[in-house]
Amino acid sequence: MQGTKRVCFYCLHKLWLALALTLVLLAVLISVLRYSLPYADGYKQHIEQLIYNRYGADVSIGQLSAGWQKYGPALLLKDVQLHDEQQQLQLSIAQTSVRLDFWRSLLNRQLTAQHFELSGLKYYIDADRLLQAGQNAPLDAAPVLDALETLFFRQLAYFSVVDSQLILQNDNNPDFSIMIKQLDWANSGNRHQGYGDLSLAGVTANTVSFVLDLYGDSLAQAFGQLYLQSEQLDVLPLFGKLLPPSRKLDQASINFAAWGRIDKGLLQRIQVELADNSLSWQHQGQQHSLQLGQGQLLWQPAEQGWSMQSGDLTLSTATQSWPGLQFQLHRQHNQWQAGLNQFALAALSPLAQLLAEDIAPLQQLMQYQPNATLTQLQWHSDDGQWQFSGDINALSSEPVADVPGLQQVNGDFVIGAELARLRLHSEKSQLSWDKLFNVATGYDELAATLYWQAGTADRHWRLTAPQLQLKAGAMQLDASLQLDDSLQILAKLQQADASQAGRFFPAPYMLDKVRAYLDQAIVAGTVAEATVLWHGKPADFPYREHQGVFQVQAQLEDSQFEFAPEWPQLSGLSAELLFDNANMQIHTRAGELAGIALHQTVSAEIPDLFAADTLDIRINQTVEASALTQLMLQSPLADNLGKTLQHLGATGQVHGDVLLAVGLKQPTVQAIGTVTFDDTELALAAPAMQLSRLQGKLTFDNEQIKADSLKLHWRGLPLNAALQGENSAQGYQLALQLTGRHQAQQLAQALHQPLQPLVEGATDWQLNLALNLPQSGFTYQAELVSDLQQTALLLPAPYGKTGADRRKLNVTANGNEQRSLLALHYNDQLHFHAELSHEQQRLSRAHLVLAETDIGLNSNGFNVSIDLPQAEFLPWFELLQQQLSDSAETEQPFFPQLSLVRGKVARLDMAPGIVLNNTVFELTTLPDSWQLQLNGTEIASRWSFSKDWQGKGISAALDYLHLPLTNAVLNTDELPQTVAEVIQHPQRWLLQLPPLQLTCGDCSVGNYRFGKVNAKAQSTAEQWQLNEFSADYKRSRLTASGSWQNDSNSAGRSQFSGRLQTANLGAMLDEFQLTSAISGSSADIDFDLNWPGAPQQFAPDELAGKVKFALGEGSLTEVSDQGSRLFSIFSLDSLLRKLRLDFRDVFAKGFFYNSMSGNLAITQGVAQTSDAAIDGVPGNLQIQGYADLVGKELDYQMAFSPKVTSSLPVIIAWMVNPATGLAALALDEVFQSAEVISKINFTVTGSFDKPVVTEVNRHSTEVPVPVRVAQPEAIINLPAADQPQGKQPHG
């Protein structure tokens, strides 16, 4: 026990002794150290060399100082730098302050610092190695760093680091600094614990608190945890780097807590719990914010790399939130992969708007305002090559320039450094447009694939869409495009609605007015197929230097095209629409315009869409004139060209060549063109004229129209015409000139066929028409003029003229659509005024003035005023009956009902030699008839013309009619010829004569008095009949009846029969001043005569028929050869002279007869008799032979048989050798018988004017001489010269 104690005390003694010795030595050492420390800087090179020799590290010490502080030495090192083998700075320390724990250093036999502080430390770390997950991946293998690890991890119980940096380096990125504001580190055995505050340089403005709790003897074997925490971590500096300096966030803060697990000295896992994180800023006066809600992040190493992923995160703004956000980030070797799920681009849109103001690419991107959900976003990077890919859901964007806006588009994309691909697909949505198209493009299905290729130094980037398909109903669009420094598009559109064509007109490449026009013009239809070709730089469009091509070719089917608002639409249109750079054309294949069928005849063109004032539409079509008129009436030209064509009333084929310049800048339409007429028919509205075979061209420029050298026909007559038209304040003014030169008979036939025989020669005339077409209706003035030179008018005096004479003919017309006022003036001698009703197409009133003084149109109905110094009845009667006949044939009479005819004629020649003087007349109308009062020197009468013209006819009551006859008429030789020459052609007008009933109280013609006359006549379809004619004067009566029978092959035939009865023919003939050889004698004459032609066409050479006459007691006396000789056909006066010459005592006082009778047969003007006989007192006369009434020649054989009685004077008178004086007395007393003449035969030949009477022979016989009963009254002594000379002719 004690030994034990001794040993213990011994040991203790030795221990204390050793301790004392040690203390003494230590004191000596400390003293030595204290005195040697101020000279430590002189050893820094030795220290640097010592470190290099021991650790192979290149260390430099800027300054070294030492001293003694309290219980131990203290060192101060400045500007310590450590370089690696490549002489790259790896570690630098601005200042190192070390206070050694002397005693612990002695106890541990190594330097032990009581206080160790590093200030301004910069440690450069390979970021890739730091995050490397392998166990054999130390931070740095340099021995000196191992020594530092031993120092800081084992030797130092406590040290601190202030104002230092861990600089993470990567070859491909700028250095990233972790700022250590304060780090306190404590080593206690194998537990190592540090805590402090750090920040990220350029990322945070304040610090993150952290705690690092490790276990292990070395860093390589250490394990433990890392804890990080931030409250309102200000990350504005990070956004300060990302944002331009002029754009600042108001606030950017992060709140999180993170736990990391460390194993074998390496970080094996970090889990981050996010709290509320937010950004806030001001933009355009409004406050904006973006929050990242609570969530988790997990980082952990992986083989040859690491990975980080998140749980569900929520992004939100003040009004909207986007939950379900997830992301992943992986690294393996040099490969990076990242994923982002359910990321809504709209969450970053407000912030992006802020950033885009100074970031040009972002600003350009944000114009589209993209919005979508990235359901799968993948990023991959490998050795500098990277790629993004992902799926897009509900992509929408706003349209910008020519890029459409999208809605509800899904797709996927792949993006690399050199190439990108985007596939899009959408259904039941639309494409919206900024300026390219007017309205959104709806579709049922959209599919597109786009490729982007990055550019190089010598190649522009390229965007290609090899397939783009859009379907909307029946419409389908297939397109491909390529965009680099130029644009290439090839597209095909099928079965599009043409009425929506405006949606496909590119606004930047067409004038607004052009697009607006086409959008309005294409009303309906189908775009069967449209092809678009674009090749060139859009900026160079429209490629005026041919540096590009832009073409659109569209086929329109069954379309409606409204080329101008007020023009009719083109319907059923089949056309081709072509855009060629700045040129636009439309060519029709078929269609209809206002009922006009079109066949490749309509085209439209805009030569330059960007310098377009007008759209030029050309219509080149042969059409029906009436259809062209209707087209113009439905157009803005309705008030000028339309009304003109309507007024012209054109029918037939015309060729229209119309250019419509539709204003694109101003709402105007200029219509220019020509209308070519080729055998076109015209029906002028006023004056009413039917024209045919119109040839020529009419040109127009809007309201101005002009036509020169027009050729046309009017009723077969060629005319020349000219036409001009223009607007005025009163309306549209149209001037039409018609000129012609024609044969007068052709012109008369065209005007009125019955006038044809009344004219001869040629006629020049000109018609000027001035037409005013206001908004409604029309007014016009027309004038026709002619001097009638070379025109002969075969009219009754005073209106007739020869071709050499000039007579002014002037016809004027003026009116409106309801009526026209017509006026005709002929040589100031004839005037005609009328009012024409256009609705009824007949004259409503008229006035014909046959006088020098024109009294105008002054009453209703049809009035005729006449004031002539002289007129011939027969020519006027022929003219009037022609007109009346023509009027009767007209179903709708052109002239109004005759109301009044009033006038006077100083001298009216009724027939040759028959004159009425100072004639005044007035024709008035009653409800059922016209009443004529006709008075004059020779006539007083009342006439009634029934309006039932053919039924009841005319009745006339004449108080008296005394027609004087001139000497020429009294010459009976000239009368038949005069009457026959009146009219030589068939008188079929007689068939139209109405029934006539005439009474005359006292009628006479010249010296021929007829007394009281009654007559009735009527017409049938083929015959004019004189039913009754009677004339009673004193004791004479003439009755007659007859007819004129029409014959279509000839002039017909007249036949009349009648009876003349008179008590004293001689007295009647004397009163008629018809001197003849007849005295006294009653007469009863029956006649039945006929001749070819009408009654007034009597011609002796055609006369036929028979006459039977019977005369009572009378006598024949000698008459002169001069004057009227009623019985010239027998030449009885010549025969009487012969008998009186031979038998003066018998015929001294005339040839008395008891009766005279006979029958005449007339054939072709030759009157023949075989039984004419005179029962005379002195003897009987038998006549046979003929008289030629035409040649006026005679050939008769006459036999005179004396009557021998017992009267001695008679016997003596007829003795063959008559005795004289006493011989006769002796004879009477002595002789018992005597030889007397029993028969004398004569021939009468020669002419009516110079008959030749020739005694042919005589016959004698013996007669007994009675006893003298009386003394002869006288003794006839015939001189020798008076004795008969035998058969000598006498005349």
UniProtKB/TrEMBL annotation:
Q: Which InterPro entries does the record cross-reference, listed alphabetically?
A: YhdP, YhdP_central
One Pfam family cited in the UniProt record for this chain: YhdP
Ranges in coiled-coil conformation: none
The YhdP central domain covers which part of the protein?
8-1253
Name the UniProt record assigns to this protein: TIGR02099 family protein
What's the source species for this entry? Answer: Rheinheimera lutimaris
